[in-house]
Specification:
The protein is mainly alpha-helical. The chain is built from five helices and no strands. The chain is globular and about 25 Å long. The two termini are 22 Å apart.
Length: 63
């Protein structure tokens, strides 16, 4: 986890998920969670940051 991505997770959770994974299912889930309450969106973003590698690293790892 980079410091910048973690900072985004606390300030703008959907942006952090978008940076990490792109505009997929997890991004939209995070948008809904953030709209329902900022804390659930933030927790989901931190979970995504901790549990998944960033998009480009995932793609390079599979080839």
């Amino acid at each position: 986890m980079d410091f910048i991505r973690v900072l985004f997770a606390f300030i703008v959770p959907p942006a952090a998920v978008y940076i990490q994974l792109g505009a997929g299912k997890q991004f939209w889930i995070n948008c809904v969670l953030t709209l329902l309450g900022f804390i659930p969106g933030m927790l989901h973003a931190v979970y995504i940051m901790a549990s998944r590698r960033p998009g480009l690293e995932r793609l390079q790892q599979n080839t």
